[in-house]
Amino acid sequence: MSIRPVLLLLLACSITVCTSGALAPGREVLRAPTKQVIKNYFATDRTRVSLTCEPERFLVQINFTQPFRGVVHAGHKKGKCKIRGDGSRAYTLRVPLNDCSTTHNRAKLKP
């Protein structure tokens, strides 16, 4: 039985990456930051992810160093905001602001 890599995305117009020893090797999980982070990208030894916030959606651009054959999704796994890797190295996930479990937080940014 083979384990396919999965990259989960939970977005808040800022993204951070965390890895946990409890996860299977090769799995990375993106989570909404617990504090305000003014950064729209991150990179690991296997991935480079950038986030662009548009008026009606997020664009998540993901580049892998190796061909990717896993699943990238925002919101629920069975939702429509997902990409199935076909062996390419670059993908763009489009996440509407009114779908895929997104929430709008009107909190003001501190200068």
From TrEMBL:
It comes from the Eukaryota. Residues 1-21 form the signal peptide. The lineage of its organism: Eukaryota, Metazoa, Ecdysozoa, Arthropoda, Chelicerata. Residues 52-111 form the ZP domain. It comes from Ixodes scapularis (Black-legged tick). Keywords: Signal. This is ZP domain-containing protein.
